[in-house]
């Protein structure tokens, strides 16, 4: 009998917990992706700033500062991609010392005792989660590389390119930059949800509660935060 069968036969609650987690995880990802087109949020507002950036880029002869900005964004993504690899290596190590990990958690007063098979399945699920994050970070890194190439092909003001062509080019580069940023954002969201999955090793109710809490935290930060309000502040002077 496979580990998965043993895992769910011994504790059907694990299936309910896992389904609730993926409902929160994928549900929020889908909601955030669709809502950004109809509701002001960090993603939609920052896209407007990126478009303004690329419009101004067409007016400059020197693009060193623009390339430096993209390089800085790439470094942030590269840091998380490298960190994810270290986390995956750590999780693989824990797989080889499951008994010790079980003993550590067993000392927590409200921790629910789990079998070795259950622990191994939970660790594998954590590995899957961080593999997903790694692919998001590395794809974001490649997309920022594409942005650098696109910036390199932007015509100079002296080339006499029409305003319509410049606007279309700015929109295209801004779109690619936003795609890279959104993939990076999805990787960060996965990090948030990984904190909820840590609760799975302790208590089933804690796991479900943390999954719900992470959705609330992400929603507040992306759709209702003071950061968003600041980004949306009007730059027009108050004439009253």
Offer a few descriptive terms.
240 residues, 78% helix, 0% strand
Give a written overview of the molecule.
This protein is mainly alpha-helical. It contains nine helices and no strands. Helix 4 packs antiparallel against helix 6. The longest helix has 37 residues, at 116-152. The chain is elongated and about 70 Å long. The model has no long low-confidence stretch (mean pLDDT 87).
Short précis:
The chain has 240 residues and is mainly alpha-helical. The protein has helices at 3-10, 13-35, 42-57, 64-95, 98-106, 116-152, 163-198, 204-223, 226-231. The N and C termini lie far apart (75 Å).
**Sheet with most strands:** none
Classify the beta-strand content into a percent band: under 5%
Shape: elongated
Mind telling me the C-alpha Rg?
23 Å
What's the tally of helices? Answer: 9
SS elements, strand count: 0
Supply the helix-strand structural class.
Answer: mainly alpha
Average the pLDDT over all residues and give the rounded result.
Answer: 87
* Secondary structure: helix percent: over 70%
Low-confidence stretches: none
Q: Which oligomeric form is depicted?
A: single chain
Measure the end-to-end span.
75 Å
Q: What's the order of the H and E elements?
A: HHHHHHHHH
What's the structural blueprint in terms of helices and strands?
Elements: H1 3-10, H2 13-35, H3 42-57, H4 64-95, H5 98-106, H6 116-152, H7 163-198, H8 204-223, H9 226-231
Helix pairs in contact: 1-6, 2-8, 3-7, 4-6, 6-7, 7-8
